[in-house]
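quick q for whoever's on today - can somebody do inverse folding on this one?? i tried earlier but teh output was garbage lol. tokens:
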């Protein structure tokens, strides 16, 4: 594992490429404990890599110390493919926002057009 600024990067090598086939188009992230880990196979095409960042939405207004587990319902309801909770560089405490990545512009619009997204009765923006 390598730490680059606020990011922790890990390279995992598989002997059988069939094991990671889903990571190219269908699975963009996995959960490990309380963290969501974004997956980028090193041989993604330029188009695949651009798609993962093309339809992004920033959601803010979280209470302090938000975790991946807290966001599960929102992630499932809004068909989010991957996301990350930004953290403070020095304290590593989570900020009160996340960037959510979608497959299509329609998925982003559907998430935005919901009248109110709430987490624990607290409105998010």
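ok took a stab at it. sequence:
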């Amino acid at each position: 594992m390598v730490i680059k600024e606020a990011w922790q990067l890990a390279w995992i090598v598989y002997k059988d490429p069939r094991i990671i086939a889903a990571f190219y188009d269908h699975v963009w992230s996995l959960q490990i404990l309380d963290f969501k880990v974004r997956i980028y196979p090193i041989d993604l095409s330029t188009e695949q890599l651009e798609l993962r960042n093309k339809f992004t939405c920033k959601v803010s207004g979280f209470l302090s110390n938000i975790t991946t587990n807290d966001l599960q319902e929102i992630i499932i309801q809004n068909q989010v493919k991957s996301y990350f909770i930004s953290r403070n560089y020095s304290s590593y405490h989570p900020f009160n926002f996340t960037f959510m990545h979608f497959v299509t512009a329609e998925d982003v619009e559907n998430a935005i057009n919901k009248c109110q997204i709430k987490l624990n009765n607290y409105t998010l923006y």
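fwiw The chain has one domain: 2-124. also Residues 2-124 form a domain with the Alpha-Beta Plaits fold (CATH 3.30.70.330). so keep that in mind when u check it
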